[in-house]
Amino acid sequence: MTAKPSVLFVCVHNAGRSQMAAAFLTTLSQGAIEVRSAGSQPADKVNPAAVQAMADVGIDMSAEIPKILTTEAVKESDVVITMGCGDECPYFPGKRYEDWVLEDPAGKGVDSVRPIRDEIKTRVEALIASLTPASA
């Protein structure tokens, strides 16, 4: 692992779960962790309900765009967290892989996306604790 750990969040469309996770990790790690997100079949735009749910907690995702998953992104990451991309995510020995089973926010209203957002935040906080040394 490099001096600054790097995390890649992957879901199918890179429009909801992975974008929210990346936004939380970027914000909560305060630059201590390099953050990437991608999708195996990226959507045209980020889910508006996910953007609104994150805005509710003070995080602006309105400028984000879904990105295609590349082999390079996986190679450059220390931790790869999948959210429903299954076998489409390339595997490299020596990487830490986690599969977060989360409800897909696609097609849901903001009220249904908020509990998904909160679950992602809890998991991201645990991820940060596992990647950063405890403060003395």
Q: Can you walk me through this structure?
A:
The protein is an alpha/beta fold. It is built from four helices and four strands; from the N terminus they run βαβααββα. A four-stranded parallel β-sheet has the order 2-1-3-4, with helices on one face. β1, α1 and β2 form a beta-alpha-beta unit. α1 crosses α4 and α2 crosses α4. The chain is globular. The two termini are 21 Å apart. The mean pLDDT is 91.
Please state the average pLDDT score. Answer: 91
Assign the structural class, choosing from mainly alpha, mainly beta, alpha/beta, alpha+beta, or little secondary structure: alpha/beta
Fraction of residues in β-strands: 15-25%
Q: What is the percent of helical residues? A: 25-40%
The helix/strand order is EHEHHEEH
Spatial separation of the terminal alpha carbons = 21 Å
Shape category: globular
Query: How many β-strand stretches?
Result: 4
Uncertain stretches: none
Give descriptors for this structure:
alpha/beta, globular, four-stranded parallel sheet, 35% helix, 4 strands, 136 residues, single chain
Quick structural summary:
With 136 residues, the chain is of the alpha/beta class. The protein has helices at residues 17-29, 48-55, 71-75, 110-131, and strands at 6-11, 34-39, 79-83, 96-99.
Secondary structure topology:
Elements: E1 6-11, H1 17-29, E2 34-39, H2 48-55, H3 71-75, E3 79-83, E4 96-99, H4 110-131
Parallel strand pairs: 1-2, 1-3, 3-4
Helix pairs in contact: 1-4, 2-4
